[in-house]
Amino acid sequence: MKKGDDRRARILETAERLFCEKGYEATSIQDILDAMKLSKGGFYHHFESKMSLLVDICEIRGEEMRQGMADAVSACGGGALEKLNALFSKGGLLQGDDIDFVGMMLSVAYRGEGVLLREKMKQAMIAGALPLLNGIILQGIGEKMFYTRYPEEIGELLLLLFATLSDEIAQIAANQPENVAEALAKLEVYRSSVEMLLGAPYGSVLLFPLERMNNVVLAVLERERQKNPRSGG
């Protein structure tokens, strides 16, 4: 790795750590420079702003998400239906294991002006999942588990449905966490829609494990209470 690439990678790593520890808004570029003993020139040689830095972090996380989906599908020893559920289990922000990153992203991407970040994460998920999903759909048709007249087109539509649901749940988790149960109730509508589009058996598709989603939201809320004890009442 070239020296410039190594420095850029270290800036990204340091910034993500500080964003997760202190929060994005509470972390300044100067905080990042101080942590790295880096000059402003060294920072601006690689990044235009703090937001451009976070966008790049999201792109890296998106690639990690893509690899996680590929690994989950590869490790799945079942048929197309099991692989489909394995793919979905790794496909969204709230499916991630890093609670600090999830909490930071909810506070930035789903409050205020976070459209670009949400779009980056969504496009990364779709781009990474689509080739995998298309292969799963063809396998499912061969196994007579799925029935669709549009095997080459249906994958993108399914991922858009999944991304919309992910966004809706994350939006509520970030801004109205007391209503997250209401958002999760919509899961049945989306799940049933995916099954109908694929011609899959009723109750066979699992988009989000409800218990896990609830635990993630609770963990994020607890994280925020610990960082801002006065807001906890």
Report on the architecture of this protein.
- By secondary structure, this protein is mostly helical.
- Helix content is 71%, strand content 0%.
- It folds into 2 domains: 1-47, Homeodomain-like (Arc Repressor Mutant, subunit A); 58-232, Tetracycline Repressor, domain 2.
- It has helices at 3-22, 29-36, 40-44, 50-75, 80-88, 99-109, 115-142, 154-175, 180-185, 187-198, 210-227.
- Helix 7 (115-142) crosses helix 8 (154-175) and helix 8 (154-175) runs antiparallel to helix 10 (187-198).
- The chain is globular.
List keywords for this structure.
single chain; mainly alpha; Arc Repressor Mutant, subunit A; 2 domains; 11 helices
SSE blueprint:
Elements: H1 3-22, H2 29-36, H3 40-44, H4 50-75, H5 80-88, H6 99-109, H7 115-142, H8 154-175, H9 180-185, H10 187-198, H11 210-227
